[in-house]
Amino acid sequence: MTPIESGEMNGLAVRLKTPKWAEGLIFVIAMWFLSRLVVVVAMQVIAPLSNIAPVTHGGTLPLGFSPGFVPKTSWDLFSHWDGAWYRKIATLGYEYTDDGKYHTVAFFPLFPLIVRGVMTFGLSFEVAATLVNNLALLGAMLVLYLWAQERYNINTARWSTAVLAWCPLSLYGTVIYTEGLFLLITTAALRAFDNSQYTKAAIFGAMATATRSTGLMLFPSFLIVAWKEKRPKSAYFAALLTTAGLLLFSLHCAIRFGDPLAFVHVQRAWTWQHPPWSDVFAKALSLSKENLLRVVMFFGGGYLLWHLRKRLPLIAVVYGFASLAMIQATGALSSVSRYVYGIVSISLALGLLLERHPRWGYLTLGFFVILLAGFAIKFAWWYWIA
To answer: Which residues lie below 8 Å from residue 31, measured CB to CB, with a gap of 6+?
Structure first.
């Protein structure tokens, strides 16, 4: 090959080299696809073949549960637990009576509204809702990758995204829950505020408060950071606008049921399910896996935020602690592990930590894979996970 030909080949190689943004996109899609593949195979292939004792539930049975249930490959496996409630909302709308019993008004409206819109294309609820949550998780991973890359480097972006994808509680980014959507819009809101994009922060923040009550923690987080960093008045206005989603839902409850706080009052029906921390610690000491996970997720997440508080964006630290405080205040400890997973600040913090210690990182992700598959199998059998 002549020097001229060699130079032409090198030039072609440079032109064909994958740009950095495309490499990031490929990595995110690969992490999302592989992790979701583990969940789907575990639920749809392994679970129906597993020799597990059918679960029994005392008291009021979960909506959609049949005693002696044995899983069979179907889209219905994705709709256990909260999924059955979202099906009811998407197909029948909201209902509520102040009688201390379970009612659909306990669940916020944005997710079922989006699912209902997707259903107009002729898809069943189970297909539409599964697609919405999974694609939203993919979007959340992409936004987190971009945020971490802007703030740090490609390695941190990769580790943070991998944590979000492979965390065992990412099961709830595949089944019919709001985790994927909530992570997408809260991550987008935090990134926008961190970049002083206050219109986007307000829009995504309002969507977050229409998706889950913990989205309301964006409001004080934005206020505190705006004051601490001496941000312009538009930052305070953006903080105020984040409450719009919750206020609109409250208005709907006032008009429909005559009770603007119906979504709060209905929670009395669920309070019996939530154990106190004393029970959680006692069972964790006796090596109860479920309660060990609760302790590790909540207090481990808080430690990570504190330990890395000087490296994390201030908005991520404040939002993380505000969300943990709300979880503690509400006492919703039966789902504490899942709620902590929904705090994107903790995935970013763990990504920062593992980027410094990659050998431990690979061991951690390997352990995550095993737990993720196990959780998916149990969820398909109607066992309570988080």
So the answer is: 141, 161, 162, 165, 166
Instruction: Report the sign of the C-alpha dihedral through residues 276, 280, 286, 290, in that order.
Output: positive
Task: State the Cα–Cα distance between residues 367 and 89, nearest whole angstrom.
Answer: 36
> Are 177 and 83 within 8 A, CB to CB?
yes
47 with 381: CB under 8 angstroms? Answer: yes
CB 348 within 8 A of CB 165: no
pLDDT tens digit sequence for 43-90: 999 999 999 999 988 777 899 999 999 999 999 999 999 999 999 999
DSSP letters, 83-144, are: HHHHHHHHHH-----SSSS--GGGS-SHHHHHHHHHHTTT--HHHHHHHHHHHHHHHHHHHH
Spans of all domains in the chain: 22-49+76-271+358-380
Q: Which pLDDT score is estimated for 18?
A: 61
Query: What pLDDT score does 14 carry?
Result: 41
Give residue for tokens 């998706």.
211
- Closest-CA residue to 112 (of 97, 137, 92, 95): 92
For CA atoms 25, 29, 30, 32, the dihedral sign is positive
pLDDT digits (tens, 9 = 90+) for 255-265: 999 999 999 99
